[in-house]
Amino acid sequence: MAGVLLLCAAAVLLLAAGGAIPPPEEAARMARFVLHNCDWGALATLSAQEGLRGRPFANIFSLSDGPPGPSRGSGVPYLYLTDMEISVQDLEINSNASLTVSLAQTPYCKKHKYDPQNPLCAHIIFCGSIVKVNDSEAGLAKAALFSRHPEMEGWPKDHNWFFAKFNITNIWVLDYFGGLKIVTPEEYYSVKP
Predict the structure, then answer these.
(1) CATH code, 161
(2) H-type helices in 94-160, by residue range?
(3) What SS3 state is found at 100?
(4) Which of 47, 51, 75, 140 could be joined to 57 by an S-S link, Cβ 3.0–4.6 Å?
């Protein structure tokens, strides 16, 4: 029975909305694949807000690691931020954060009738920090974000938007049964999605 379940799960994992999903034994590729196929993630910070100071606080942010399409992602989660946003205010005090992205936001999990909490509906947890991109990287960030989120280009200029990236230090992959898999940033950046 376990063998049949394993074969069925492997067959299901071969097809995804954005191309072939990597097999469970390729955790670094899975992390790249999931990030590249997601347009947003849940960013968790430690709150600096009155009444919540020091407590976990999660918020949704649009993101992109590059224009849509196979093998076009850099693996770097770029964000378009403003100091007016409360999570960004938290980051000004403590830039450490975690970012979770999940295939639940793609057609893949619904197509296969996977609940978002089912390990087969892969999700990735990144830990690290948010940093503003330098001028040489701003063009990359802009192309990555505006290609997936064209509305951003028209957002109010008086909000002082800036490009930032998630500087990854730790990666956990949950894409199959048996618990989390740890992927190093070096492993992650050395593979293509």
Answers:
(1) 2.30.110.10
(2) 107-111, 135-148
(3) strand
(4) 47
